[in-house]
Write a structure and sequence with these properties.
The protein is about 35% helix and about 20% strand. The chain is α/β, with parallel strands linked by helices. It has a 7-stranded mixed sheet. Strands 6-7 form a two-stranded antiparallel sheet. Belongs to the SRR1 family.
Length: about 220
Amino acid sequence: MERLQQKIQANRDVVRRSKFFNEIKSSIDVPFTCIRCLALGSPTQSSDSRYQYALLLELIDWLGVTNVSIYDPVFTEDDKQLFGSFSIEETFDLPQDQNVLFYIPHLPLEVMEQVVNNEQPVYFLGNDVIVHTDRLTKRKLAELYPSMAVMVQYSSNDSKLDDGFTKVAKTRKSYKEPEVTYNFDSVYFKKVEIVRYQNNFNKSDPWGNSFSDLALHRLVTK
């Protein structure tokens, strides 16, 4: 455990001195009193998770947060020992609380859909919702993850076209997806704001893909 702690401390030093962490600090102007961390992975077994855990610890210190709720089903007994006084809890009872920062690195879409529906975060630091859902068509996204689909719509500034095709040349047309109907009344938010970071992924950074596409999201409640 001592050797692991030394690795994490070294990772914290790297994160603290990085341009990426300075960007995060510049983007946050909310006096958060609690951090809810999900999908961290196992810091005792994964180098990516150790860097993500290092960022969590730096956020805790910088924000002065003492209330930390953390959960991932992959946690080992060694992980739980590492977390010390953090509350390891599968459920969370502070929905739509603007003083809670959700830190959710690389959360799978199906779990993100559940978190949005059940825990209703207002602020979350996680994968850019536009990038994270880009592999799915709009129709498939709406079918599988309706709340995420609404979030993408609120995040996007794309203009809607009248028909199913967009002209790209006089003699050619490019296929456009059929129009999708979204249930905007089913979600608790009316607007989504995203702050993206320029330095979360550079080839020269030692943390690799640990923070790729990480962005700060604000879900403005109704």
